[in-house]
Amino acid sequence: MDDQLAIHGGTPVRTKPFGPTHDFGDDDVAAVAEVIKGGRIGKGPKVDEFEREFAARHGVKYAVTVNSGTSAMHTCVAAVNPDPGSEIITTPWTSAGTLIGTLLHNCVPIFADIDDTYCLDPEDVERKITPRTRAIMPVHLFGNPADMGALRDVAERHNLFLIEDCCQSHFAEYQGQRVGSLGDIAGFSFGGKHLSAGMGGIVLTDNRSLWERAILFRDAALPRDNGPYEGRPYANYFLAPNYKINDMIAALLLNQLGKVDGYIENKVRDAGNIIDGLSDIGEITPQKVRAGDRHTYWSLGFTLDTDGLDCTAPEFADAVSEEGVPMGGPYLGTPDEGPLYRNPFLAETLLYGNSHVPLDIGRDRPLDYRLVRCPYGEELMTRQINFSMVPSLTEEDVGEIIQAIRKVALHYRK
Description:
Blueprint: H1 26-38, H2 45-58, E1 62-66, H3 69-80, E2 87-90, H4 97-104, E3 108-111, H5 122-127, E4 133-137, H6 148-157, E5 161-165, E6 173-174, E7 177-178, E8 185-189, E9 201-205, H7 208-217, H8 247-257, H9 260-277, E10 284-286, E11 299-304, H10 313-322, H11 344-347, H12 375-381, E12 384-388, H13 395-412
Parallel strand pairs: 2-3, 2-4, 4-5, 5-8
Antiparallel strand pairs: 1-9, 6-7, 8-9, 10-11, 11-12
Helix pairs in contact: 1-8, 2-8, 3-4, 3-7, 9-13
């Protein structure tokens, strides 16, 4: 092997791309074609069937499909029905889709710090609770479950809703129980995640009142058949968008549901082998997974010991990418563009025109995200790198991923 890094002119470890992220085949085409030929391409029996099957796989009573993960998280907030100015505590290390619905609902995201799992620190969550707090919204980042037992305890003691963001964590498990079944309500994304139709999302809950509000909210609060307002005069009963999906998307999701376990098994196996292959490199620490939890590895994350390496995390990621293994990080561009409270839409209050809504509702002065800090997470995630897992890796691929990361780590080791 050429020890000179490819970024410095050496020979890269690999030159070919990795395989596909999903197995989209003739069976998927046939499933969608069947819907088209049937002539009913709007919301229909396939949507209902997918909702039933996805709910059953999580052991919950109710499911509500929507058109994206962002819509799913907005629907979760809407189901809770908070007053304007209410606070929802969440993590700043997540897609903005986690909290866009919070802001669209005129509520205020409050950011708590994270721990070595890259997920919410329950102790800091409790420190952030105020009389305005309405809910806690943990994110199971990269497929790794947050500490749902501790967070549920905090939520129950303070009479708060617990809203799970499962967009990156399909079929992950906290202490043997699937995420999405642990809080009061949960949202998922189907836009390129383990289970994908290129778009779509779903909301799960065991709470009938939350289901009633959610299923109305995703469909302009109209009194549809088999819904909670069935039989009422046709009208919009409260302010709500149209977030529905159609039967073509549902048919594709149903077919992919038969493949997703295989995707996840491959990713979990390959992530474990990559971690094992790097275990003697002390300057690289994988995202912490609690004993008894199941990480499903939508992304494989590591934290670098930059005191032991003569490079920054972005430099490390760039060097690995030049070796033919696409590596990202730090997540959200920490510490320059991220975490989210450094993004312009929050730091510069680019929300509703020139106003400070909802950051000034019921406050003497607007919340200023430029003053927010989550110090442990900032230090940790400044040193973070990640690799997007695909289910089609071969043994040779896994070996070359390990080889590329080792090559870069050994080159930069002090």
